Amino acid sequence: MDSLDTFMQARPPTAARPLLGLTVLVVEDSRFASDAMRLLCLRSGARIRRADSLFHAHRHLAAYRPSVVIVDIGLPDGSGVDLIRNLAGAHNRVEAILGTSGDPDGELLAHKAGADGFLAKPLTSIGYFQSKILSLLPEDRQPKGLRVLSDEVVVPDQVALRDDLAAAAMVLADAEDRRSMRYLTQFLSGLARCTEDRPLAQEVAKLEDLYSKGLDVDRQVARLTDLVQDRIAETAVL
């Protein structure tokens, strides 16, 4: 930790930066969703660390103890529910554990596993983010005095979105790997919700339906591949 980082984390929370002093570990595979979290933490005063899988999350947790852990339900090497359950049952428990997902069923799964709270995607509101975190912290972690609830929103980097789409295109190029494709449909479904991309969400849903019925998916994979490539081209000109 450099001297500026040390200085900022040692300061008590303020009305403008109510999460000063907190280290937030975000376990999230999407770079686009992670960038939104980065901006929310930055505007709130929190220090952020990111893990893109269960494997890397456990490496972080072995090295330090974060104040808050935010866990995406769908991860490339397993379910975030398992990590939430492990964190909730730990002897030296972190102060706040939150699940996050664009799936409506994610909140129930997170709470059943022992999460203290849940953040629904897309997550862009600074005021909502700060209020959810603060509601789970002890009084000595709260800023003193009145706090104005911010109505600002963050806008994640389109480069991060393009990176997510490019990663999805690579998986689509090897559609024979069923395990990877199951993960991909989950990943793209969440990305579509975060970007409010209804056409993408509809094409992913069609692919999921074909898989569930055991039908041929080649034509739908081709349609989805074309759509993802179109989205990559759109972000390249921004």
From TrEMBL:
InterPro entries noted in UniProt: Bact_response_regulator, CheY-like_superfamily, Sig_transdc_resp-reg_receiver
CDD domains found in the cross-reference section: REC (cd00156)
Gene3D superfamilies in the record: 3.40.50.2300
Domain Response regulatory stretches: 23-136
PTM-bearing positions, type 4-aspartylphosphate: 72
Keyword Phosphoprotein assigned: yes
Name of the molecule in the record: Response regulator
Tagged with keyword Phosphoprotein: yes
One record GO biological process: phosphorelay signal transduction system
Keyword vocabulary terms for this entry: Phosphoprotein
Coiled coil start-end: none
Pfam families per the UniProt record, alphabetical: Response_reg
